[in-house]
Inverse folding.
């Protein structure tokens, strides 16, 4: 997670240059193209990466690589077919220019799909340092190429092709890391694919629905809102899109533990879920507060004065981001338990609910309405995931001990919003300090966190 944040902070420079270079309307087209490619990602993945981690974690070492080869072949096939479909859709619904950009980004996606599947043994083996190094390198390379294209005065389409050279570089690095583990050749066996897909079809549909859920707001704004509203929402969405990977990294790192203990050790599973939930609640609440307080600064850095109306939109979307931290914990808990049909039902219900809520809100209040609808939908989804885990295994019910303290820290942490005479960076520092102080004062944290603090570790162990 630290590696991703470091790479993203460097990427802020490139993003701010890109937004200023393309302008409000072109940025709306850029984010729309990326959203179409994200839908292709969902269709090509169908939850197979997450289920692959689960299966590889549970299988003997000699059975892991053959499964990984079949997964790679299946994902290459689905991505290739999906690319043709999504490019045609972009051509018919939007424009030939956007379709060309989508085609380039789809080729980059194919390279990334191959790399991610080859890296599965690193994830299952909890070699998270190498995972962090690869992803940070991806961000740094993307940043460098973006800056080069901005300086060269490139138009929209070349920016959407950046993922191709980046994908080649990261793929080569991954091959060097995993060679010797097993054959790197993808396998194409319909019988193996059917055997793997049949039990996970509900989860596949759920994974595709989840990706649509995340993108439904931007697509609705692109259809129902004006070009300016789409540009403002896209600026906010781009920032959230970068931050949204953080809860995925935080919670996803624990998925092998959830999957391994789900069928053998409820006590360990309950302990892992409870601790990851508590840390995610704290971090998610702090991120939501910091996004609300720091939204004007973030938009000023990324987009400049032209995008100033996007700041209130970002502040509201921060609530959705905070809720996502909690939602992913329980969604991964359900995945560890193999509750595919439950995940599907929750995700479809969440997608329908959010789309039905966002559509009229876009017509009423443009980008701000879309942000409000997204935030409400994410909170409902988090509650549904948690209740589903508890309903399936009541013994996994978490302690709610830290919730009052975190809620109090969140409320007080938002107080600096009223200090309009202080620069945003000052309000952000005050907010973070107050939030942390209240969490510490109310002991609203898992005691294991003390073990991570040098100097306190020895005293805690003696106690």
């Amino acid at each position: 997670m630290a590696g991703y944040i470091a790479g993203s902070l460097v990427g802020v420079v490139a993003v701010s240059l890109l937004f200023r270079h393309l302008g409000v309307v072109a940025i709306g087209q850029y984010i729309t193209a990326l959203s179409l490619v994200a839908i292709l990602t969902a269709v090509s993945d169908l939850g197979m990466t997450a289920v692959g981690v689960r299966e590889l974690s549970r299988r003997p070492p000699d059975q892991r690589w053959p499964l990984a080869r079949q997964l790679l072949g299946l994902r290459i096939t689905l991505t290739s077919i999906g690319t043709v479909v999504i490019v045609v859709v972009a051509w018919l619904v939007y424009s030939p220019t956007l379709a060309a950009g989508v085609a380039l980004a789809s080729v980059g996606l194919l390279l990334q799909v191959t790399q991610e599947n080859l890296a599965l043994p690193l994830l299952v083996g909890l070699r998270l340092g190498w995972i962090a190094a690869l992803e940070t390198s991806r961000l740094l390379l993307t940043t460098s190429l973006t800056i080069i294209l901005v300086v060269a005065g490139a138009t929209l389409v070349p920016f959407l092709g950046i993922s191709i050279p980046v994908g080649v570089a990261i793929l080569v690095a991954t091959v060097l890391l995993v060679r010797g583990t097993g054959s790197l050749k993808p396998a194409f066996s319909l019988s193996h694919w059917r055997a793997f897909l049949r039990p996970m079809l509900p989860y596949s549909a759920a994974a595709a629905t989840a990706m649509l859920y995340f993108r439904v707001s931007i697509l609705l704004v692109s259809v129902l809102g004006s070009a300016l509203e789409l540009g403002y929402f896209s600026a906010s969405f781009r920032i959230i899109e970068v931050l949204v990977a953080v809860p995925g990294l935080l919670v996803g790192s624990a998925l092998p533990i959830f999957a391994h203990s789900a069928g053998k050790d409820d006590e360990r599973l309950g302990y892992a879920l409870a601790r990851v939930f508590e840390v995610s609640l704290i971090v998610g609440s702090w991120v939501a507060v910091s996004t609300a307080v720091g939204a004007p600064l973030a938009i000023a850095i990324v987009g400049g004065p032209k995008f100033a109306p996007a700041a209130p939109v970002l502040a509201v979307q921060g609530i959705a981001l905070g809720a996502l931290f909690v939602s992913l914990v329980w969604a991964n808990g359900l995945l560890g338990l193999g509750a595919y049909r439950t995940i599907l039902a929750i995700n479809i219900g969440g997608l329908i609910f959010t789309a039905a809520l966002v559509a009229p809100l876009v017509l009423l209040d443009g980008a701000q309405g879309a942000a409000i609808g997204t935030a409400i939908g994410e909170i409902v989804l988090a509650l549904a995931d948690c209740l589903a885990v508890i309903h399936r295994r009541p013994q996994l019910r978490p302690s709610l001990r830290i919730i009052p303290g975190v809620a109090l820290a969140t409320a007080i942490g938002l107080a600096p919003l009223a200090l309009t005479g202080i620069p945003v960076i000052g309000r952000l520092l005050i907010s973070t300090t107050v939030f942390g102080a209240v969490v510490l004062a109310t002991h609203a944290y898992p005691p294991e966190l003390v073990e991570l603090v040098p100097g306190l570790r020895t005293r805690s162990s003696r106690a």
